[in-house]
Amino acid sequence: MTQTSANMPEDAAARRAVEPVICYPNDSLPPPDLDLYRAARAGARKIGEVRVAPRDASCFEVPAGGFFRISSVEGPQVGDLNLWHAGNLDETFFSGKTRAIHGTHVTTGERLWSCLPFLRPMATIIEDSLNWYGIDQFGGSVHDVIGTRCDPYTHHLLSGDHYHYCCHSNLSRALAGHTGRPIEEIEMQVHDVMNVFMCTGFTRDTGQYFMKASPVRPGDHIEFFAEIDLVGALSACPGGDCSTTHSSDIASCHPLLVEIFTPQAGALGDWQPAPVNGYNRAHGR
């Protein structure tokens, strides 16, 4: 962000010194029962896995009360994650509201929320092997909900090129294959992502979104509890570890592994899937 002193008011310093107020205090939210989830996970059995090829995406399904784990398996690689309610693809992951509730980056104990008017937890992070990273000296952190996904439209806008393996295109192909619907139609369901393993932030001088080499290594993982029936799609970003570039075939890329688990009967006690938001939708009428 460019600043100029030409029109700076006399009380500029006082205006800047006003202390911030958190927009959405989240201490009124009921905390997830991580002890319950982890106990259920300990006895869960694996019911499937999907290996996501580099510069491609794959879909997977997770029943409510199940778990899914995303792992680095061969080399540093970031992934772009979309989620939908399996019974209604109009209910999608809402990265903006997740960011407003939890912050720019998410980790253990935080949730991925669905879009309006549903606004309910879709998935809860129960394990994150990169939660040690924190926020570095550049303001960077891991697992962001600020990036929108690399896409061929922005790439064409900036370069004039036609590149077909951006995460938006990868996710669109995967969802088209999963649903059997035309890609021109189904791409409208692809939405802003959680950037799994990606290390990002905003520059302090210009406020620009930046990326840097991900700290992820083979064996690192992030694991989620499915709060509702889910369809997920994960793209192994063409940027690899996003240390230099994305939206090209230049970066070294690696596969990602998604594993799905289901708990033993009764392991979750009287747990129930998250209900849709309770607002009556009157909107003042």
What key attributes describe this structure?
6-stranded antiparallel sheet; 6 helices; 7-stranded antiparallel sheet; alpha+beta; 13 strands; 285 residues
Walkthrough of the structure:
With 285 residues, the chain is of the alpha+beta class. The chain has one domain (32-262). The chain has six helices and 13 strands. The chain has helices at residues 12-16, 34-42, 95-102, 152-159, 167-179, 183-186; strands at residues 45-52, 57-62, 67-72, 79-85, 88-92, 111-113, 121-128, 141-144, 194-202, 209-212, 221-226, 230-236, 256-262. The strands form two sheets. Strands 2, 4, 5, 8, 9, 10 and 12 form a seven-stranded antiparallel β-sheet that branches. The chain has a six-stranded antiparallel β-sheet with strand order 1-13-3-11-7-6. The radius of gyration is 20 Å and the shape is globular.
